[in-house]
Amino acid sequence: MKTLLLALGLATALSAPAMAQEKLKIGATVYGLNAEFMQIWTAALQKHPAVQNGEVEVTVFDGRYDALVQQEQFNTMITQQYDAIIFVPMDIEAGAAPVQAAVDAGIPVVGSNARVNSDLLTSYVGSNDVEAGELEAKAVLDKMGCKGNLVIIEGPIGQSGQIQRLEGNEKALAACPDVKVLEQQTGNWSRAEAQTLMENWLTSHPGQINGVIGQNDEMALGAIEAIKAAGLDVGDFAIAGIDGVTDAINAVKAGEMASILQDANAQAQGALDIAIKAVKADYEPQSPIWQQYPSMGWEDGKAKTYLVPWTPVTTDNADELLKSRQ
User: Fold this and answer.
1) Rounded to an integer, what distance in angstroms lies between the CA atom of residue 248 and that of residue 215?
2) 316: how many CB neighbours lie within 10 A of its CB?
3) Where are the beta strands (DSSP E) in 155-250?
4) Phi-psi region of 294 (alpha: psi -120 to 50; beta: other; left: phi over 0)
5) Which of 126, 128, 122, 107 is nearest to 303 (CA)?
6) Displacement of CA 16 from its chain's centroid (Å)
7) Among 32, 244, 315, 318, which is disulfide-ready with 261 (CB 3.0 to 4.6 Å)?
């Protein structure tokens, strides 16, 4: 009997720390992984100190640019009893239902990068897309001298980035009433789709397009490729994008476009810190991004919104930004 009790006691002693060290299981569903920005975001998540030291296991699901796919991914995470979910939604409205389902199942959901129309999120960690839309449009309009014609290549219709960046675009355009928008269509964040759009527009409006507002860098870069393929001088166009992806930084260095860095690293790692805090009340943030951007303010991890500042890409900071990608 004593031997049995001793064995039970030893088993209990061994299992207690094992249970205490059990990894948190956190999932992230992102709208799509085809382009560099979300690839940087995903890599940053995996490099978070809590993942590196083994406290947290992170699984990233590719939403494949489909809100229904993301909903199914939520269902999988709910069924498998994930501890928390980070959500980068494809659609601002369609994303509300899976958030509701997760919260009903007792799983906290943290938004990152793109917004969802739900007040059930624990917090949101992203950047002000209206501000970015206004900044990029102003860069184009300033080069155009507030006159002439431009085209707008939008993100996926119904995603928060498309909605809010367009609001910012229009704010800047309101200050230049003599500028005409010749074309406005979605390029779905895709360089290839934007190149096709721009090729068509250069044909249908020969010699008339002076500026291009690409609501992300991939689409601005697609427009540049179309301009070059048509044998035109990129320097004759005012072009801007958003995100600060590697090719865009190089294009800024070459004087071909303007871009604004959206810090994927800060958005991803900030969201993971918040997600861990939602599960472990005594958790303190481990990512250095809170020191990098003091304006975000940790606030005990309980604020509803944390905004990562934008950084304009310039010829002065381009090499430093490129170095950070290596």
Assistant:
1) 13
2) 8
3) 179-186, 211-214, 238-240
4) alpha
5) 122
6) 39
7) 244
SS3 291: helix
- Residues contacting residue 140 through CB under 8 Å, at least 6 positions apart: 150, 211, 212, 213, 238, 239, 240, 258
Residue 243's φ and ψ, nearest 5 degrees, are 135, -35
CA atoms of 173 and 311, how far apart (whole Å): 22
111, two tokens = 């938004």
Cα torsion for 263, 267, 273, 276, to the nearest 10°? -150
Q: Which residues of 49-68 are buried (b: 16+ CB within 10 A; e: fewer)?
A: ebbeeebbebebbbbebebe
Domains in the chain, start-ordered, CATH in brackets?
A: 24-127+263-308 (3.40.50.2300), 129-261 (3.40.50.2300)
Phi-psi sector, 231: left (phi>0), alpha (psi -120 to 50), beta: left
pTM across the whole model: 0.91
Residue 245, classed as helix, strand or coil, is coil
For 233-288, the pLDDT digits (tens) are 999 999 999 999 999 999 999 999 999 999 999 999 999 999 999 999 999 999 99
| Distance in angstroms (rounded) separating the CA atoms of residues 30 and 88 | 5
Quote the strand ranges of the chain, DSSP E: 24-30, 56-62, 84-88, 109-112, 124-126, 148-154, 179-186, 211-214, 238-240, 259-261, 305-307, 311-313
- Residue identified by tokens 């490729």 is 225
